[in-house]
Hints:
single chain, alpha/beta, 8-stranded mixed β-barrel, 26% helix
Amino acid sequence: MLLALAAGAPQRAAxxxxxxxxxxxxxxVVDAYELNTIDWETLLSDKRVAAxxxxxxxxxxxxxxxxxxxxxxxxxxxxxxxRKYAVSRELFQTRRLVARAAGLLWGAYHLARPGNPxxxxxxxxxxxxxxxxxxxxxxxxxxxxxxxxxxxxxxxxVGHIKARTGRYPVLYTNHDTARYIAAYRNDYPVLARLPxxxxxxxxxxxxxxxxxxxxxxxxxxxxxxxxxxxxxxxYRVPGTLTDIDVNVAPMGKADLAKVWAQGKxxxxxEPDPPLILAKIEFxxxxxxxxxxxxxxxxAVAPDPLVTSSVPKPEVNALNYxxx
Length: 323
């Protein structure tokens, strides 16, 4: 299904939109923030786990010079953050070795922040050093350029990744951001054609797809610390805590491996009828004015941005000076 999608063939497949993780024919993909606790031997006992994705870089490259005035920070805090960064990089490489040795597909994502997109793309490639069979992901949390990488800069980011590697990354984002990009896909023609890693913590997504150029998701992140607790959880991956992010791919591992790292754009679809979403314009020197739509959709509370890139309480509670 996704093989034809990623290879550029016309998209005709309907989305697996109701509890697809309960089907043993679908693959489970685990993705982890920097310091999620993982018991690898126990995790690998779940034979449905086909792939592992780890956070790699975050925004612009760090520069640690822990002497004198570190941008107003204390020397002690600078050293603590340097140790955290060093441990995170070592952990990334360890996870990669273990996952690949166990036969899992491997992927890495960059958390998009405001700032030069070329420098961020180079930071990601230097950090993740992606191999030809490894998935690359741009994690785009929202459309406010004061908090996240702007959509215009995201286009530059993915273009630079393509120029350096010959492949496009996958786009990870939530429902609200995906819907906005789909509605304005003519303004963001590259972003709107990236394979979609879709984050939404609901038991079903009936009626979501097709959405713009997306007839389906490549991956659906359906479980995280937001909707998984010790009492109830959509899917428990052995060897992990409730803060781990869990995803489903609507195919078995063999088919997933064929499309995992292809890095191709999806086919472009014909434009939709008149838009119902107001386009948001930002002036960095002024407060953003309220956007007005000719026919606004019913008010819907946005999904919480509790995603693979958001630190979990267990991570925040760690004392990095212990490392």
